[in-house]
Amino acid sequence: MASPDLDSPALSAAGEQFGGCFTVCIEEVNSAKILDVLEVPTGSVSCNQNVPKPPPFPDKKMTTSRNGTRISDSCSVPKDIKDAWDKLFKEGYGADVYIVTHGGSYIPAHSWVLSHASPVLGNILQQPKVKNGIKYIKILGVPSEAVYMFVRFLYSSCYEEEEMKKFVLHLLVLSHSYSVPAMKRLCVHLLEQGWLTKDNVIDALQLARRCDAPRLSLICVRMVVKDLKSISSTEGWKVMKRANPALEQELVESVVEADSRKQEKSRKMEERKMYLQLHEAMEALLHICRDGCRTIGPRDKVLKGSQVACNFPACKGLEILVRHFSNCKTRVPGGCVHCKRMWQLLELHSRMCYEPESCKVPLCRHFKEKMQQQTKKDEAKWKLLVSKVIAAKNALGPFSARRVGLL
Length: 407
Known about the structure:
By secondary structure, this protein is mainly α.
């Protein structure tokens, strides 16, 4: 922040003028305890008691449909019908085709059911292989238990949770390969809702990209970014590193980028906090000079006393700073750091004030005149600072203390 020339005789005289503008109740103040106005906690200049509480999140168990039935419990297919289809699959009555799986196991099925449930299987069944008069098709590359669960789902949409959790990645591949959207949505949903672990997240990420599941892919990447150290020690990462080094490089770059974004966000938050504190200091300065507060204020105002609460967060720190500034003997010679801070706040106010003729803040007109003598470089710095403080003020929202009418 540009600062005034502390050795200027004009400012020395202006400082004497400033001290005569206030009625100050003298209190013992240790100079070591003088508060830095720019470090007063902001509290977001908001009044928590006036912010309405948000409604509670909907409870899954209490979510209901329009007809009053619970959505989680409702189903478009009655349970007895699902059980009948499940029984048909398990007993294999009237099966006309067999599905050969890994290890030579086979599963009896009905070609008309498979064709209606999966267009891909329907195309395959148009030209099935035949051996000893028995039609069969092959589904290889995954465990036979996963194929069994897959075919069972085609019949009845039924599954056992423990088995599903064990073979969810295999079923994701099968549902995508054989175009069974219902099963694919189920697998993606279960993985997104908590079935991803550090041991399977790399496999899930690669399968999500191959099976056109972009949301699942994004969740996997976020999980890797959040816990790269643990995940990079898993077997899945080691296999991926050998088979797909480009993906490893991409994930490492994602971690670096996420760290950079986090640091940038932290920097911007600190910067915004500083501008909010400056805005609060401007509000408190105007409050003290116009209305008076507790133990300091204009000579034509009755002071409220130190026991009265003040709604301006920066008021206490600024009050102590003003008291120090009024009595400091080294205000200009030697450049007292607290007085220098006061000069800066007064000049900032002057640059933000649009009514210098009627303004109650001391030296406001003085700094308006001083602006004409500053260099273009200093002028540009001050203009940038003023714009940042005004932007912080505008970003406070409708629940700031001043806007809800408390101040």
